[in-house]
Design goal:
Blueprint lengths: L30 H4 L12 H5 L27 E9 L10 E6 L24 E5 L5 E7 L4 E2 L7 E2 L2 E7 L6 E7 L10 H4 L4 H5 L4 E2 L10 E4 L2 E2 L16
Parallel strand pairs: 1-10, 1-11
Antiparallel strand pairs: 1-4, 2-3, 2-7, 5-6, 7-8, 9-10
Length: 244
């Protein structure tokens, strides 16, 4: 039987102060309508919630991680390659984990019935992708750099270009959601979602790094974005609500 000092047991590491946004953040107006008003209630996980459904390779399509080849034609916009690693708090790879992305197209519009602003949909781009991490915790997507879009949170409000990520453990109850931004975006200063993160270092971990080595000549720029699920270098995670 394992003892409290058994090194095989995971060690609890509290999130560093300022890593995650507050549930109620006045500049992000919709948080006032949806943040919890009562103390949270712990719901213990049962066996069925931690053992299934399985998220194995049989559930992935051949082109699920290449959002530029899911239709007969090519999508509009700047083609990019997004790579990174999924890591635990000790820097060890998290293998065979499902990583999903969703994003706006190059014009800043989602393929969603609730997105009606006058930017055209792209018939060759759905904005959805998924893949499994390899034995080194690595993932890779080929996609289109998303555009900025208006979202009516405040006067002349525009969201910086970003890609939503979700990562899973062995079941749907083990899901974490974050956003990846791009370097040197001029909209950072006026975006309350980005600026709701109190700690500046944690905020910077949401910004991808341009990767010249992975850039493919005459084909695609590349950006690197690692996701750390716990510890001092933990990524910023959020609820699963949309921000449109």
């Amino acid at each position: 039987m394992a003892t409290p000092t058994d090194r095989r047991l995971p060690q609890y590491r509290p999130d560093p102060d300022g890593t995650h946004p507050p549930l109620d953040y006045a500049p992000y107006r919709s948080t006032a309508l949806r943040h919890p008003k009562q103390p949270l209630v712990l719901l213990p996980q049962m066996l069925t919630e931690v053992t299934g459904p399985l998220l194995g390779p049989g559930r992935l399509g051949e082109l699920d991680n290449d959002l530029t080849r899911q239709h007969a034609g090519e999508p509009q916009g700047q083609r990019i390659i997004v790579t990174g690693r999924l890591l635990d708090g000790d820097g060890r790879p998290i293998r065979n984990s499902l990583v999903e992305i969703w994003q706006a197209n190059a014009g800043g519009r989602y393929r969603h019935t609730g997105d009606r602003w006058p930017s055209p949909l792209d018939p060759n781009f759905d904005g959805l992708g998924r893949t499994l991490t390899d034995d080194d915790g690595r993932y890779e997507f080929t996609t289109i750099k998303p555009g900025a879009y208006p979202w009516k949170n405040h006067d002349n409000a525009w969201r910086p270009a970003h890609i939503h990520f979700s990562v899973f453990g062995s079941a749907f109850t083990q899901r974490l959601v974050t956003q990846m931004y791009f370097p040197d975006d001029p909209l950072f200063s006026q975006d309350p979602i980005f600026n709701s993160i109190p700690d500046e270092k944690a905020r910077q971990r949401m910004i991808s790094r341009f990767d010249l080595d992975r850039t493919e000549e005459e084909w695609a720029l590349a950006f690197q974005f690692d996701i750390v699920v716990r510890g001092r270098e933990q990524s910023v995670f959020e609820d699963e609500e949309e921000d449109e």
